[in-house]
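Following up on my earlier thread - several people asked me to post the actual chain instead of describing it. Fair enough. Here it is, all 295 residues.
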Amino acid sequence: MNDTNVSSAVLERLSEEWEALTPEAQKAARYVLENPQDVGISTVREIAEAAKVKPNTVVRMARQVGFDGYDDFREPFREAIRRGSVNFPDRARWLQDISRTGDMGGLYADLLNAAIRNIEDTFAGISADNLQAAAEAIWNSRNVYVLGVGVNNANARNFTYLASTGMTQFFAIPKPGSVATDDLAWADERDVLIAMTCRPFRTEVIEAVRIAREQEMTVVSISDSPASPIILQAHHGFVVSADTPQFFPSSVSTIALLETLLSFVIAVSSEEIVDRVEKFHKRRHQLGIYQEEPE
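Reply from S.P.:
Thanks for posting it. Predicted structure:
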């Protein structure tokens, strides 16, 4: 953990209070200082066993630095997990710990609050003018390549699928059996790359953005940090909030942003889009793809 993490203040307080702790409490404090990643995912008994002290000693240590008890002491470390400050396996273990302790209602509330907060934080930092500028670049392009790997691959393909109901120049990459940089081989200044990756950033997405810039493509990037390599290289960059109690970054705000961006593309497009969408869905009804409502 580092100084930016919500639990760093607790570690500092432990160090400051070191001399005031009993020898046994110092053993517990030493374990916490050396293994802070364990606190948010461990019960008081598990920490006590690992530190080779009694559970009451861990509780006394927590009270010595200003907390009511171990649960109160552990909360900043859990908050670090919620904010993605620890690795994926630790976050997965924390979820299992919640299940063992029966606090599923608390997890449900945390997930719901995180989803709502992510959307609010994301759109609070994005203006309609920024979205319109990106939408106009997309609409006026020859081809639009939508790049997402890992969890964002599904997001990229969903965006491309929705766009295909009215437009034909959208392509999800990497294509099956290919790599993104090869898919961009013949792209140039007439084309747009929409790229997305959240921490930890995927190297193939970063490389594709670099290639796109070299080929003078317009780059629209979506990531969870203003310092993201793909945001720094973007013509149009959008920072999403992806905090979540789950062990992978949340896609809720990314999906919401992509749906909004596509709506802006439709809004700035020509009137023929309406006819295209109508023709597309009429054909689907004719082919029996949709279940018809009873008359």
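The longest strand covers residues 218-223. That should answer part of your original question.
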